[in-house]
Write the structure tokens for this entry.
Amino acid sequence: MMSDNDANGSDGDLEFLNQFAEAPAPQGRVLIVAGSDSSGGAGIQADIKSVTMMGAYAATAVSAITVQNTLGVQDVHGLAPELITAQMLAVLDDIGADVIKTGMLHSTEVVEAVIAGLSRADEHCQLVVDPVMVATSGDRLLDREAVTVLRDKLLPLADLITPNMPEAAVLAGFPVETLDDQKRAGEALLALGCGAVLVKGGHGSDALVHDVLVTEEQVEVMSAERLETVHTHGTGCSLASAIAGVLSQGAPLHVAVNVGRDYVREAIRLAPGFGKGHGPINHMHPLYLEPEAGDDA
């Protein structure tokens, strides 16, 4: 049923965003449900930056407040599930959303609260689920008992899920260590009922980073040279949110994924070097792009 298609992210996909360069207002609406990161590199802060840089409007429903920096997570204070649902409904009943993106959902009760909030979304609203389980520092961000509820109840509702290799292994129930494992895990997770699966390859050991996009039509492998750096804090959050921001503006999935990958890769390459541990990426780098020849200064 599926075939492999090796592909690199195309700079041409970024042309999709050019039509919004002169727009007087954001062209898409993204509701982010995730935890707050006090260091600003991951979580809802990274989500807002990424969605904004894609030219879309970001609204939020905060699921938890974390005490963290580039060295790790020191504390997590979860918000009451009913408050999370209430935040979602307040946004959906007023501003609305073209895409809902979820990040850190730390407990069974929170996952169920999000599902309750989804019931108020427009039928055309897409759902992007980043199944956050562990922070870049290694700190656990999802209760073990919540994994089953996330897998069985939330993932089937998603148009796209974006697990990294360790997350895909937990959700699929077998080790994910190679490119073939990524493909197999993507197919297994697609069988849960979601629309598409992007198994990210940052945790792999190859010289190339392979991201595998699995849909009903095909298995597409997107590869890029690995950047050797410790400044990767918030890459998963940022990628899922960038994709959500582009999807909210009507882009096809393939274009949204490639734009998101190009954006995050450049953000890693241009990381500012902040912090003593896993530093944040440079979310703002599109603001510093030099105009092409012939463009007005």
Q: What stands out?
A: Residues 26-285 form a domain with the UDP-N-acetylmuramoyl-L-alanine:D-glutamate ligase fold (CATH 3.40.1190.20).
